[in-house]
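Class, discuss our next protein.
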Amino acid sequence: MSEKVSFTVVENAERLDKYLAENMEISRSRIKNAIISGDVLVNESNAKPGDKLKAGDVVSVQLYDAQPTTIEAEDIPIDILYQDEDIAVVNKAQGMVVHPAPGNYTGTLVNALMFHLKDLSGINGEIRPGIVHRIDKDTSGVLVIAKNDKAHVSLAAQIAQKSARRIYVAIVHGGIKEDEVTIDKGIARSKRDRKKMSIDAMGRTARTNIRVLERFGEFTLVEAELTTGRTHQIRVHLKSIQRPVAGDAVYGPKKTRLHRGGQLLHARTLVLTHPTTGETMSFDAPLPDYFEKALRILRAKQS
């Protein structure tokens, strides 16, 4: 079986293979093979993996079922907020890796999903069944899971075309005078540390809308909405305005009095169009206990 998805490129982009791999959460090798096989068209014409995409280009991708997964199902508790025949929405816990990777093939969200859900889409193959988008290990919050390939291609297209909304909340170091700030700075992999991302004028376009929710003097509670989805985008953007996420040892101070278990960054809201019914659906993941505890501490200091 196969599914086909078509979408219009919103802004000038990099290579075709890289763009599709990042926006559709499909391995770059699989995308490259699909392009070479003629299963990817740009403006109804065959393309090459290295072709540069321009705003307005129409990309069509024909995706075929992957081989059955060999990753083992594990009885790991997960918070399932919603599910039907096409999608599941989960509230991922902080500290849980989304999918297996070299050296880390157990204890992930995928291992748990394989135990708790009857079906998962096969488009992402053995390592990432059902995974349409990701959040960092130490970020908690809402994720949508595709239970079949039709749902997967629809959700992937929504994320690629930026019609799905992803809204986070974070506690950051320092104060922000403005009520709303838009951070529009390119992001690329750091030349000094390949495990990190950095601001780069020649990097991929990245835009984050920040709205202040509550001020605590030395800390601020903010809402961050992604209009692009680059790796570590919110964390890197907030660092760039000297307001790193509290608890983020990679891009901010190595220690914070508020929380020692990772960054205080939570994917709170996801708005999407249901792949079958066409209904607009909004899902909210409640703040985890450690996040609420940090807010209680800050509010108590204000009183």
In short: The chain has a mean pLDDT of 86. The chain has three domains: 2-64, 67-160, 166-266+293-302. The CA atoms of residues 25 and 31 lie 10 Å apart. The domain at 2-64 is CATH 3.10.290.10 (Structural Genomics Hypothetical 15.5 Kd Protein In mrcA-pckA Intergenic Region; Chain A).
